[in-house]
Amino acid sequence: MARITASVYTSHVPAIGAALDLGKSGEPYWQPVFKGYEASKAWMQANTPDVIFLVYNDHATAFSLDMIPTFAIGCADEFQPADEGWGPRPVPVVKGHPELAAHIAHSVIQDDFDLTIVNKMDVDHGLTVPLSLMFGQPAADKFAWPCPIIPFAVNVVQYPVPSGRRCFNLGRAIRKAIASFDRPLNVQIWGTGGMSHQLQGPRAGLINREFDTAFLDQLIADPEALAKKPHIDYVREAGSEGIELVMWLVARGAMGDESSAGAPKVVHRFYHVPASNTAVGHLILENT
Amino acid sequence: MALDKPYKDIPGTIIFDAEQSRLGYHLNQFCMSLMKAENRARFKADERAYLDEWPMTEEQKQAVLARDLNRCMAAGGNIYFLAKIGATDGKSFQQMAGSMTGMSEEEYRDMMIAGGRSIKGNRVVGEDGDAQANHQPQGKSQQKEGA
Q1: pLDDT tens per residue across span A14-70
Q2: pLDDT bucket at A86, cuts 50 / 70 / 90
Q3: Burial of A163 per CB tally in 10 Å (0-12, 13-18, 19+)
Q4: From first to last of its 147 residues, what are the pLDDT tens digits of chain B?
Q5: In chain B, which segments carry CATH 1.10.700.10?
């Protein structure tokens, strides 16, 4: 049977991708950001999974205002890095895992979550920046991500977005789905986006370190209570784009301690302000 | 019964809800079209003519031509869509976000390096934080003489 061994949480700021792609990661502004991911890259090398289930949001890239699904699961063989207006990021094509994705879609929809099955979709910085942070830039002679990735897009662009409670319960349904897949796969689930940031209006640039710190503490220790936090708290306290943090609850809901004893092990925790407009938060949790 | 929109009292913030989405559909779809290199080139060659291909309101077109992102947001724009205009102009997200505050690029960048904008006084309309309407626009060059 497949099982979830660990979860990774990270911001997915586009400027981080640009800094990597343009060779600026050694600059004083960026050094502290990438230093926070050095331990993560070593951990990834030692713990490369068979598949990553990657929860992120599309930033008006694959989904225009013609239609925006609340939850979309990528079931294709592969996904191209998108041209978001600056040209596509020079990163490898994302290879999917169609068999596991289809299995999860079937199981989770039967558990009352209305997923949209997507068979053609480009992926933007929301998905590729976390991969770059955790794997580093793939070498030119072996230009591929180390494992297949199932993209899972959550609408956090057009309100109302799904509640924290719904995201958390969705994570539980995803865990159940993965556990019923009849192949011995090691699966990681990643939750991305956040932390506090606001990209618009006179309040642009908002950062709330106290909110972010409390969020990280509670995500580790008491995610069920955290899942009750209403939208308005995120928007008011963590900025209009801080609402992305509900996606971390999908990944947390998929961790094993929700239904069995034993809290997850905190492998790594990192927080830094700023990367461009955003507070960078990062956690690695292992199932014990 | 009226819908509950508790986010209406957050200062300096427009939440892109279903109502804004309805107002901004064509504006945002115009932005989306700039994800193609050939459309970026056509837009740059003659902005007005390109905008006139879209059933946008005159206010939306004027806001785009002026690169006034606050006006674009008020007219139904969403920042992730509007970012395609910034990308076409070669601007970063930080430059775009900063442009909505009135601060210079350097002032905004310095604010972020110093830890970002404080939440203090910026939670609810009527407090006295720097994002409140009575403190706009921000930035040294924007301050009125003797203010």
Answers
A1: 999 999 999 999 999 999 999 999 999 999 999 999 999 999 999 999 999 999 999
A2: confident
A3: middle
A4: 788 899 999 999 999 999 999 999 999 999 999 999 999 999 999 999 999 999 999 999 999 999 999 999 999 999 999 999 999 999 988 999 999 999 999 999 999 999 999 999 999 999 999 999 999 999 988 765 444
A5: 15-89
Domain range spanning residue A64?
A: 3-286
Strand partners, A283: A9, A269
Of the candidates A12, A97, A103, A197, the residue annotated as catalytic is: A197
Question: Which residue in A14, A59, A203 is closest to B12 by CB distance?
Answer: A203
Count: domains in chain A: 1
**Chain A residues in contact with B98 (beta carbon < 8 A):** 204-205
Instruction: State the ipTM, two decimals.
Output: 0.94
In angstroms, the CA A122 to CA A80 distance is: 5
pTM over the 0.80 mark? yes
Residue B47 Cα, gap to closest chain A Cα (Å): 16
Q: Write out the H or E segment, with its range, that includes residue A150.
A: strand A149-154
Would you give the DSSP letter of residue B106? H
Q: How far is A101 from chain B (nearest CA, A)?
A: 27
CATH code at position A237: 3.40.830.10
Give Cβ neighbours of residue B113 (< 8 Å, ≥ 6 apart). Answer: A29, A274
* Architecture of the structural domain at B15-89: Orthogonal Bundle (1.10)
Measure in Å the smallest separation between the Cα of B142 and chain A Cα atoms. Answer: 13
CB-based contact (8 Å) between A287 and chain B? no
Q: How many CA atoms lie within 13 A of A66 on its CB side?
A: 9
Residue B61 corresponds to which tokens in the numbers above?
A: 């077109």
A206 Cβ under 8 Å from any chain B Cβ = yes
* Pairwise CA distance, residues B131 & B122, whole Å: 6
pLDDT in tens, A104-155: 999 999 999 999 999 999 999 999 999 999 999 999 999 999 999 999 999 9
The β-bridge partners of A81 are: A123
